[in-house]
Amino acid sequence: MADTVPAFQLRKIGHVVLNVTDLDAAVRFYTEVLGMQVSDRYPDTMVPGGMVFLRCNTDHHGVALVGGAPTIDRSSLNHFAFEVGSPDDVFRARAWLRERGVPIVFEGRRRAGCQLAVEFRDPDGNNLEIYWGIDQVGTSGYVRPPGEWRQARTLEEAVANPVVDQRMPTDWNRSRPADADRLESKRTE
User: Fold this and answer.
1) Domain 10-139+148-188, what fold?
2) H or E element: which one contains 55?
3) Of 10-14, 86-90, 154-158, which gets the smallest average pLDDT?
């Protein structure tokens, strides 16, 4: 495997999600000490302990905090994410991971941020995400309201039912990319 090259390219580490014991104290730290801004919140009814999405640029979130973590001697990472350049890259990443026997724990689109994503674990059990198309927050501070979130449980469902104003690249035909099909068929041979 060391001599193979993935059929997709990571562009940047996109966001980090941290489990925290005191959500309010963590939000104060990230907003008042680091100057981040709140984009969205999930109540306890949506995510036990609540969840807050914070930004420091136009990405919907660069840091998200999940409340209710038990007090431990050291910190606990929820997940970190890698951005790729196109929806095709997310499909190719999914096929690449499957081809290598990496269990996928989620694919599709969650809620806040509305990015297309595939989530999986590294060999130590750390949660990772590869995504495309995270909402951008403009200079007006407008954030997509929860009524426009559209959860999807597969990548195919996510692209077939896009959220308002999430634009697919003009050269993308809303079907599975040919190389994703090729990689997927190799996996099943």
Assistant:
1) 2,3-Dihydroxybiphenyl 1,2-Dioxygenase; domain 1 (3.10.180)
2) strand 51-55
3) 10-14
Secondary structure (3-state) at 149: coil
DSSP 86: S
**82-101 confidence digits (pLDDT tens):** 899 999 999 999 998 899 88
Beta bridge partners of 82: 13, 130
Pick the closest to residue 7 from 84, 103, 79 (CA basis): 84
Degrees, nearest 5: CA angle 23-24-29: 95
* Domain locations in the chain as residue ranges: 10-139+148-188
Q: What is the pLDDT of residues 119-148, one digit of tens each?
A: 988 766 778 899 999 998 888 888 999 999
What is the distance of C-alpha 67 from the center of its chain?
A: 18
- The helix (H) or strand (E) run that includes residue 184 is helix 178-188
Can you tell me the distance from the alpha carbon of 126 to that of 112, in angstroms, rounded to the nearest whole number? 22
User: What's the distance, CA 19 to chain centroid?
Assistant: 16
Give the pTM: 0.66
